[in-house]
Amino acid sequence: MSLIAPSILSADFARLAEDIADVDRGGADWIHIDIMDGHFVPNLTFGPPVVQAVRPHTRLPFDVHLMIEQPERLIEAFAKAGADRITVHAEACVHLHRVIHMIKDLGLPAGVALNPATPLQAIEYILPDVDLVLIMTVNPGFGGQAFIPSSLVKLRQLRQQLQEIGKADTLVQVDGGINSETAGLVRAAGADVLVAGNAVFSEQDRAAAIAALRPEGMR
Ligand code: DX5
Ligand code: ZN
Description:
With 219 residues, the protein is of the alpha/beta class. Helix content is 31%, strand content 18%. The chain has helices at 16-25, 48-54, 75-81, 96-105, 151-164, 180-188, 198-201, 206-211; strands at residues 3-6, 31-36, 62-67, 85-89, 110-114, 132-136, 171-175, 193-196. The longest helix is centred in the last third of the chain and has 14 residues, at 151-164. The site of zinc ion (ZN) has 6 residues, from β2.
């Protein structure tokens, strides 16, 4: 599996609908939507009304990455606004098991995200229940940061653990500092879903930018 999910954090917020349509035409697989609350991460983005407003502008799945404290307060609102899948941070959930099952009970695939310094052990007992694991390859909060190389070790260990528990079909996502160089590295280490903000939206030709992130045979 190899999917590209452009992150609209790097889009032009004054023309969000056009930028989403542009990456849709350019061959994106998912639209990655970064929700930040100014507490869990030192930045703010937007909430469910904006997700709902852009929902009619593409048929691509909305991959909602919640970088917020107490995400359980807003999960239903994001689901109603048009999220197709929701990922929460292990670090932001006191009752991670409850939150993951809240997402699944709404009929959506559930993901768990880990910051660069959080060990895989933090999700050992929830791993069998999740549909996706997001390994953050930068500290969340901003687009355009440099890829953290130790993430590659974590990715390889995660792949091995998933294999060991018979959950090899769980999606492994990476987010932060993904470009045409790091894309090959994370894919070789086991990533299936590559989020990319800057690498896609800083380019005029979004189709070419997305293609540059794909494995050579798929361009
Ligand atoms: C980081 C966000 C990312 C961000 C990635 O906090 O979760 O999705 O948009 O941006 P780039 O690809 O520019 O590092
Ligand atoms: Zn993200």
